[in-house]
Amino acid sequence: MKMLIVEDEDAIRQQLADYFSAQNFVIETAADGEDGCYFATEYDFDLAVIDIGLPKMDGIEIIKRLRAAGKKYPVLVLTARGHWQDKVKGLEAGADDYLVKPFHTEELRARANALIRRSGGSATPQLNFGPIIIDTSTKQVSVNQSVIELTSYEYNTLEYLALHPGQPISKTELTEHLYHQDFERDSNVIEVFIGRLRKKLDPDNHLKPISTVRGQGYRFALQQGS
Predict the structure, then answer these.
(1) In this predicted model, what pLDDT tens digit does every residue of 41-79 receive, in sequence order?
(2) What is the distance of C-alpha 211 from the center of its chain?
(3) Of 99, 119, 139, which residue is a domain's last?
(4) How far is the CA of 72 from the CAs of 41, 91, 115, 116, 183, in angstroms?
(5) Can you tell me whether residue 189 is helix, strand or coil?
(6) Closest Cα to residue 40, out of 60, 21, 13, 22?
(7) How far does CA 202 lie from the centroid of its chain?
(8) C or N: which end of the chain has fewer Cβ atoms within 10 Å?
(9) In terms of residue numbers, what domain contains 187?
C-alpha cells in the first residue's frame, strides 16, 4: 500500500513515516502544502494523511484540489485539539476521516486500514476468497487454513490485487503502489512477484487466483466469499 504524509512538524512526519514503513507501506512525505499538493494531485495513493495547519498551502486547499483533479483515494486529516471547525471543513472538502492531535499511532493505523479496506469494498480486516484468506491487519495469508510465507513485496502485490478483484491492474500501476517515486522501475520484477504468488497460493494450479489480462496486466480472479 502507498501512503502520502503531509505534515510540517518534522518529528511527527518522521515518526509516521518510520511507523508505516515498518508496516510495509510505501511512503511519500511532504513538509509543506505546496509540495503536498503536488504529490496529492500528480500521483495516486491508497491513502493520504494530511495535516490541516500547513505552511504555503493549508490542508483544506490540498483536499479540494486533489478532489478537483479526480483523485478518489481516501484522505484522513490531522487537526489540532479543539479546532472542531477544521474537522467540518476537512470533511466538507472531501476528507473521509479525521484524527485529533495528539494521537496514538496505533489508532491512526487502525483508521488508515479501515479507510483502505472500505475503498476496496471490504468492511472487515479479513478478505475471504474461499480457501484463500488475507488478513490485512496482521498482513498474513493462509491457504486452506495453512499460513504461507510471503515477502513484504509479494504480500503488497497480492493485497493490492485482492482489494481490486476483477479489475485489470497494469504493471505500471502495481509498480507505483509498491515502490517510491524515485525507484528505478523494472516491470520484469512484477512478473517475478506474480510467478511466486501463483506458486505459493496455488501450487496445484486449481484455483488460478491471478490471471493475466493480455495487454492490460493482471487481475485477481476470485471473488470474496467464493
Answers:
(1) 999 898 999 999 999 999 999 999 999 999 989 999 998
(2) 22
(3) 119
(4) 10, 14, 12, 11, 24
(5) helix
(6) 60
(7) 25
(8) C
(9) 126-220
